[in-house]
Amino acid sequence: ASPTMSATLAVFHAPRAIPKIQRNNVVPRRRIGSPHQAEDPRRRAKRGDGKKRLGRPSDKSDDNGETSGRRQFLSGGLQLLILSSADDLLAAATAAYMSAPRPETVVYIGVTMDGYIARPDGSLDFLPQPEGDDDFGFGAFLNTVDAVVMGRRTFDQVAEFVARDKVPWPYEGKRVIVVSRTMTQKDVPELLSSKVTVTAQSPSEALKALGKTGFTRRVYVDGGTTIRSLLEEDQVDEMVLTSVPVTIGRGTSLWGFDTKDKRDYRWSVTSSEPIGRGMVKTTYKRLRKK
To answer: What is the mean pLDDT of residues 144-154?
Structure first.
């Protein structure tokens, strides 16, 4: 189950100041039930009976110190929040930023029969190479994501393909984040410097930052260490695993870690299909309690 996406539309409503000359000419509003007696607004303010008019929740802070304003719930999870001060607007924006849900995460990777995703040296030469326009469905998959988060080793491999083999940059139009504590933005080849952002954040922190932008709903996660880190923290929502009919004996595995709170992770199989060359692509969705 993917995290619930909701949005809040905050409207800053500043009370209009009435010039003094106009205030002196304002006709007091008649009170319902007393047609012959006008109520002086100053008397009403002094009375301070503490009663609130129905349908007008207070704009003041609640018991938790959060400003609520006048809130209306619209269709599609949209909330209309009418605020009466600049401070309230700032508080609402900060709260929305801090509580933004992380994007949905998906892994798309090939796995050998004995459970490895790469050889010990990181080589992927055991994977069948596409022929012609057949990319085993990878292009269609990329169209379902907004951004890519990967580790340094994976980025270095892709960058080498682009520079050495003149392969087109496969993530064109996607925001690409490289998580690494040994790499900086200056280490990115000039050819790709405008296409990649390097961060020293953990994969989990990088996902939270993407969620707070408000423009990222679904993220493709790549690279053994990055995927394993998020799996360990139970932050992977979908896995598309392609079983390759080969055994390599040793290599890099996605597994071999303690699950969060040492509990089992349950998954459902949403699809499974042969894609040629003896390979079978299976899609798993993480089952979580609502």
So the answer is: 97
Q: Are 136 and 281 in contact (CB under 8 A)?
A: yes
pLDDT at 115 over 80: yes
Task: Quote the CA–CA distance of 195 and 290 in Å, as a whole number.
Answer: 37
106 DSSP β-pair partners: 220, 238
First vs last C-alpha separation in the chain = 8
Q: At what angle do helices 152-164 and 224-232 cross, to 10 degrees?
A: 150
- Tell me the pTM: 0.68
Residues ≥6 apart with Cβ < 8 Å to 186:
none
How confident is the prediction for the chain on average, in pLDDT? 80
User: Residue 182 CB: number of other CB atoms within 10 A?
Assistant: 7
CA distances from 57 to 25, 32, 53, 70 (A): 30, 21, 8, 6
What is the crossing angle of helices 224-232 and 203-213, to 10°? 80
Residue 149 and residue 207 in contact, taking contact as beta carbons nearer than 8 Å: yes
In this structure, which amino acid lies at residue 145?
Answer: V
List Cα–Cα distances, 61 to 64, 84, 145, 256, 277, in angstroms. 7, 12, 39, 48, 63
Tokens linked to 183: 């790499």
**Long-range Cβ contacts of 126-129 (<8 Å, 24+ apart):** 126/244, 126/246, 126/248, 127/244, 128/244, 128/277, 128/279
> What single-letter DSSP state applies at residue 173?
T
Q: List, in order, residues 6 or more apart from 255 with CB less than 8 Å away.
A: 115, 228
For residues 254, 258, 262 and 268, what is the CA-based torsion angle, rounded to 10 degrees?
0
H helical segments located in the chain: 20-23, 41-47, 86-98, 138-142, 152-164, 203-213, 224-232
**Mean of pLDDT values over 156-179:** 95
Strand 116-118 relative to strand 252-253: parallel, antiparallel, unpaired?
Answer: antiparallel
